[in-house]
Amino acid sequence: PRGDRLTHCCSELSSSEKMERRVEDHRLRHRIAVILDAEGELERGEAMIYLEETLNPKHASPEALEEFVEFAQQHLLPVCPRVGARLAAAWTSSDEWVCQATQVLEFDDMEALKAFRIASSQDKGWGEYTAGLEELAPVRRSRLLEPLGPVPAELLHQAATESQQSPNGTYLLAILEVGADKMAQFIEGLALAYQSLPIVASWRPIGGSPNEVVDIWKTPPVQTGYQPPDDATNQFFRQVREMAPKERLTRVIALPFSPLR
């Protein structure tokens, strides 16, 4: 048994080494519990589900984006409560398409998402909203996201509430590709570090790339020029790159109708 092996090994260690071993064993058990709890919630359908929709305005221009923003304020926001959807965030960036828009709807679980699909198909207002999108943003794509391990959904809610009083304005979208055999290690590291980081959400796609991770960070001030990294920055990225060798960063701007501002 594992306990017997630990007892036998510890008997040959000094008191300080025994204490270090106990602490490390406790940390390992905690990390595993965090991962299993998160995976269990997903299997039981209890974890939040997010519907991300990316929209290209009919013209790649600020004018077309503003037309979409006004349309969403008039037609999306009023209908969401009726069909059981919560708008979690909405932003724009020009990473793929100038003035591209992204909005994220939140659902308590898979059953809530199913109920939304039924309700929205029967709601006149939602039908008018989707019909309007055909003209304003004819190129769209959608995907489902789920929370990644230890980062609680409440962090996003808290950030949205705080941003109502003190808008952050811009956020950093980090898209990482975790190594094929490193996801458990990545989740363990996130469990230990997220509380000391300006991260507000961490998601991964349901379907598609199984190793993609999408994080939303509060952004630091924009650099006015090149700055050599300090030792702490170098150490942070060395550890992250061991688990996630590829990463893309995109600065996004919160849209006026977004709860996360």
Q: What is the count of DSSP helices, taking H or I runs of 4+ residues?
A: 8
Biggest sheet character: 8 strands, antiparallel, barrel
Query: What form results from the Cα inertia axes?
Result: globular
The separation of the N and C termini measures 53 Å
Helix content, binned percent: 40-55%
Radius of gyration in whole Å, from Cα?
A: 22 Å
> Which structural class matches the secondary elements?
alpha+beta
In short:
The chain is α+β, with helices and mostly antiparallel strands and 261 residues long.
Structure description:
By secondary structure, the chain is α+β, with helices and mostly antiparallel strands. The protein is built from 8 helices and 8 strands. It has an 8-stranded antiparallel barrel with strand order 1-3-2-8-5-7-6-4. Strand 6 and strand 7 form a beta hairpin. The termini are far apart.
How are the elements arranged and paired?
Blueprint: H1 2-10, H2 15-43, E1 49-56, H3 62-83, E2 86-93, E3 100-107, H4 110-122, H5 124-136, E4 139-147, H6 154-165, E5 170-177, H7 183-193, E6 199-205, E7 212-218, H8 231-243, E8 246-254
Antiparallel strand pairs: 1-3, 1-4, 2-3, 2-8, 4-6, 5-7, 5-8, 6-7
Helix pairs in contact: 2-7, 3-5
